[in-house]
Amino acid sequence: MMKQSPIVSRTRELLADHNLALKKSLGQHFLVDERVLERIIDASELDVSTGVLEIGPGMGALTERLADRAGAVLAVEIDGRLIPILRELFADRPHVTVVHGDALQVDLRELMERHLGSAERRSVVANLPYYATSPILMRLLEERLPLDRIVVMIQKEVAERIMAEPGTKEYGSISVAVRYFAHVSWVCSVPRNCFVPRPQVDSAVICLRIRREPPVSVRNEDLFFRAVRAGFAQRRKTLTNALSAAFFGGKRKEELGGLLREIGIDPNRRGETLTLEEFARLADGLEQKLEKR
Ligand code: SAM
pTM of the predicted model, to two decimals? Predict the structure, then answer.
């Protein structure tokens, strides 16, 4: 029989000892590959001045490595069955705090302030559950939590969408939104056989370095994000038609065409070809149109 890695054996032992059936609905695929763990840790550039928020510590394989490097670790896990296991594993490491909660619901700002408040800089490092990747990422970014960096393992297709360039089929509202808040870089691809149980998709690790200021200035951020969503909502429509449907109940197409020409964007282009800068120009132009209504 092939020799198992220590993390695989430990994960299996923990599961057996606690008689736990994993929940696919919570994205419970545990990482059992040392090299990938090392890549995540390297990309996180941790030291004792860093406080780390980990979302979904699972059986603690990544948590343990974070605890070896960072000054403080705050691990938020939704599955109550894992909490006693994690608390026992880290009982002799007072700089690790395990919180039972849903990362989409708990007050992350308050938790970070309480447990990572004394750190010089703060990062999120996590192997995110597939079902909630986008909402968790967007929550971290949109709430403008005091973060320097986010290093996450996510489904490979989602990572490719985030990294995509305008005009490609992967480019979508998440590519624009994430880039508005952060510089993104690819860390590594992770095949499905690096997890137990093995998922049906491959994964990738990406690193987001949070920008101090957005790369474009927009007068109304909500409108900017609405324009981005509208631009991608119906991919086969021209920008004029997509905007008219989203903002004016299918009307005022001529006026919109005029606005687009005025700001230097061909009205027949499709939303998925617009750059971040063009979406920003569009949002500012739309704001004037909406004001005049
Ligand atoms: N960090 C572990 C690893 O790398 O092996 C586990 C990662 S596993 C992909 C995702 C973990 O997130 C699971 O432990 C799951 O229970 C937890 N989880 C799922 N949804 C969550 C949520 N909304 N808030 C916090 N944790 C969540």
Answer: 0.94
